[in-house]
Model the fold of this input.
Amino acid sequence: MNINVLMQQAQKMQRELQKAQKELNSQLFLIESAGGAVKVSIYGSKEIEKIDIDRDAIDPDDKEMLEDMLKIALNDAIRQIEDKQEKLVKKYTGGMSIPGF
Done:
């Protein structure tokens, strides 16, 4: 196969992957934890849009529980985004690792 053809295919794959990454970055993920007491809205770029905490989940005497609920929700959100990103990379690269994605 011609090296120029390979380079064109690689460049096309890179453009498609960048487009998919851009779409993922703008996608909004909605995550709930603690039975819906904590809700996180986060973009695929990992920028948090909103955190909603049910008033009943706020116990001034148990600050640690609220911190744990937030930690769980945020970690779950990040994991979901990274899983989606990994699937995109595999889709466009056939499982080949690409730095920066």
User: Anything to note?
Assistant: The longest helix spans residues 63-93. The helical segments are 3-26, 63-93. DSSP finds two helices and three strands in the chain.
